[in-house]
Amino acid sequence: MTGSSFSSSRPHHLLFFIVLIFPFLSLAQELPVNIDGIIWEIPSNSSCPSSQQSNLSNFQFSNNLKSLVSSIPSLHSNTYNFYNLSVGIKERVEAIGICNRVLTRADCLNCIYQAAVNLTTNDCPQHREAYIRATKCMFRYSDKPIFGKLETSPILELENLNNAATGESVRLQSELLNGLRQLAAAGGSMRKYSQGNITDFLPNRTFFAVVQCTPDLSEKDCNDCLNYGFRNATKGRSGIRWFCPSCNFQLESNLRFFGLQSQYEPDLPSAPPEPRPETEPEPGEKKLNIILIAVGSVAGLAIIVAYLYFMLTRKRRKGKQGKDVQDNKIKDAQLLQLDFETIRVATNDFSSGNQLGEGGFGAVYKGVLDSGEEIAVKRLSLESGQGDHEFINEVSLVAKLQHRNLVRLLGFCLDGQERLLIYEFFKNTSLDNYIFDSNRRTILEWEKRYQIIVGVARGLLYLHEDSRFKIIHRDVKASNVLLDDAMYPKIADFGMAKLFDTDQPSQTRFTNRVAGTYGYMAPEYAMKGQFSVKTDVYSFGVLVLEIISGKKNNWSPGEGSSLFLPSYVWKSWREGKVLNIVDSSLVETGGLSDELMKCIHIGLLCVQEKAESRPTMASVVVMFNATSFTLPRPLQPAFYLGDRESREDHILVASTMTWNEVTITELDPR
Question: Which domains does the chain have, with CATH numbers?
Answer without folding.
Answer: 45-142 (3.30.430.20), 156-253 (3.30.430.20), 428-664 (1.10.510.10)
